[in-house]
Amino acid sequence: MEPLQIVYRFKLSGRQPEHVFALQIDPETALFADPEPTSPPEWTRLEFHQCSGCPLAATETPHCPAAVRLASTIDRFADVVSFDRIDVIVETDERTVSTRTSAQQGLASLIGLVLASSGCPQTAVFRPMARFHLPFSSEVETAYRIASMYLMAQHFAAREGKQKDLDLKDLALVYRGVHQVNVGLVQRLRAATHQDAIVNAVVLLDVYTSLVPAALEEMLDEVRPAFSALLSQAPRQVPRMGDAPGDPQGDAQEVSSQATE
User: Fold this and answer.
1) Domain for residue 252, yes or no?
2) Is the pLDDT of residue 138 over 90?
3) How many other CB atoms are there within 10 angstroms of residue 175's CB atom?
4) Among 188, 191, 193, 201, which Cα is nearest to 74's?
5) Residue 189 lies in a domain
6) Whole-number average pLDDT of the chain
7) Can you give the residue range of the structural domain that contains 146?
8) In terms of pLDDT, which residue wins out, 142 or 233?
9) Which of 111, 152, 209, 244 has most Cβ atoms within 10 angstroms of its Cβ?
10) Is 258 among the domain residues?
């Protein structure tokens, strides 16, 4: 299966050339499909401001997977300030999304994707979001996607005979682990670079990490009216092919015939 390609283009006002990041994502695992960069900088070593709760050991994993993947991003934004206005274009096989935003907002979207697919065990929970990446979604859209992702995971758990959490009670625990990564990563980046746009992009991601669990129910209540039909009506019994009254198979053939005329 061919890797998914997600291309980020950053166009900085009055600066050339544009910064292009072409990410290759494995469609099955949502991990990076290309090999890790060779000779990563010293600040990517696992024990350098290692995140609280990190399950990795330096004897087996010498470098932080998230830091290694972020290293090339840092080098290319040395002269960018957090609130510089930039044009960001994100290209996938399905769509192209463009926006004009602050440097830290644009970088936060890219960094969030990188963290999810980097191989960091704490951010692995967001790989489904990376697999179906949708940049620059609103807070309500993000809440909807997160709840949908989490509940789909519970569906898979139920199919496998595991305990499921349909009340979203444990979702806060998921975010707690991601918060630890954000805190550790900010400490690592502040010690490694003076580029505020990169650091503030991670800080911005952490704001979302704190906001979404706290306001999830409230944000989901905003979209609840759209579910009125699903909530008020029992599923209708769909007749099988050939059942009376009528002949659904014949009806389907008639529709197909009309479509080809």
Assistant:
1) no
2) no
3) 21
4) 193
5) yes
6) 87
7) 4-231
8) 142
9) 111
10) no
Please check whether residue 236 lies inside any domain of the structure.
no
> Among residues 22, 159, 18, which one has the least CA distance to residue 88?
18
What is the per-residue pLDDT for 234?
A: 63
DSSP β-ladder status, 4-12 and 85-91: antiparallel
Q: What is each CA distance from 25 to 36, 57, 90, 125, 137, in whole angstroms?
A: 13, 25, 14, 15, 20
Order of strands, sheet of 4-12, starting from the edge strand that comes earlier in the sequence: 19-25, 4-12, 85-91, 96-102
Q: What is the mean pLDDT of residues 1-11?
A: 93
Task: Enumerate helices (H) and strands (E) in the chain, giving the number of each.
Answer: 8, 4
Up-side HSE of residue 107: CA atoms within 13 Å toward CB?
29
Q: How many structural domains compose the chain? A: 1
Residues 6+ apart with CB under 8 A from 130: 25, 30, 113, 116, 117
The distance from CA 43 to its chain's CA centroid, rounded to whole angstroms, is: 25
